[in-house]
Amino acid sequence: MHKPDRSMNHQTAVVALVNRLRFKHLALLVALDDARNVHQAADAINVAQPSASRMLSDIEEAFGFRLFERNARGMQPTALGVVTLAYARRALAELTRFAEDLDVKRRGGHGQLTVGAIMGAAPDLLAQAVATLKTERPLLHVRILGETSDQVVQLLHRREVDLALGRLTSPLQHNDFSFEPIARETLVLVVRARHPLARREQVTLAELMDWPWVAQPIASPARELFEGELARAGLGTPANLTESASIFATLQLLESFDAVAMLPEPVVRDHVRGKLLVVLPLEIGKSLPGYGVLTRKNEPLAEPAEHFVGLLRRFSQPFKMDDIAHGGSHAAALAPH
């Protein structure tokens, strides 16, 4: 008796799945992953809700298993759904970037480069590298996303950026990403120029706990370091605290009321020189590790990205030497005397 060829049946099933999946299906899965609601996902991809429901049924039929469990709290991905949604997000990001790159080239451009970057890298290293790159290749389309390490690592994981400037944020991420240290990030405590503490020659961390704070989200390395500093000093998290991942919002808040924030020195440098902000005479954040270039493992960079990494290495040299010369801190130079 002839036994069925299991490898042939498997191949037929794979081909059938590939033939049934479409770009719109991927877009719906990503929208559902974001919204966990069919109506909102349908609006996000501009289709009617009944059409979105039928598309989801078609997708689940094609895969042969349920991607979501429906319950009173909305839609929750199944175990296999989590894997499928991660693929859909990566595939959609790749396809979108390919289409954008193709359109740039069609209009006479020279491709694109998308970089994730922490805010501390932007005023110095990133700005110099991008300025040089755009001088050399004015038609290269450059996009910069993210502000904190947890954001840029997530962007890298989702394949929404080619590379990132930041730090690994969990112990196991070295399995997925390569990290090349490239520069240090000095942190300082700042207040607005009219703050009652702005003219103080000495201040303690304990005194600052009575004031409002603006801090990065708890998942960011800088916030983890801040909480560690508080723990070592026997202090609790400030009761009056506003969380913000946006550097623009943080700076606006600092200038609007008597709050304290711990920020990268390059970010506040111009505000300090312009006498809008004042660096408090208290050293903090010495244990924050340097940031570097993050790339996905076992995935070669495209030529524009490889060239950009070379520029980052070139411009990182002055900052590394500056760290050595100043003992890793610029706070003393900016603090009031």
TrEMBL record:
The keyword DNA-binding is annotated on this UniProt entry: yes
Pfam families: HTH_1, LysR_substrate
The name this protein goes by in its record: HTH-type transcriptional regulator GbpR
SUPFAM superfamilies referenced in this protein's UniProt entry, alphabetically: Periplasmic binding protein-like II, Winged helix' DNA-binding domain
Top-level division of the source organism's lineage: Bacteria
Entry keyword annotation includes Glycoprotein: no
InterPro entries: GbpR_PBP2 (IPR037405), HTH-type_LysR_regulators (IPR050950), LysR_HTH_N (IPR000847), LysR_subst-bd (IPR005119), WH-like_DNA-bd_sf (IPR036388), WH_DNA-bd_sf (IPR036390)
Annotated keywords: DNA-binding, Transcription, Transcription regulation
Family: Belongs to the LysR transcriptional regulatory family.
HTH lysR-type domain segment(s): 21-78
Gene3D superfamilies per the UniProt record, alphabetical: 3.40.190.290, Winged helix-like DNA-binding domain superfamily/Winged helix DNA-binding domain
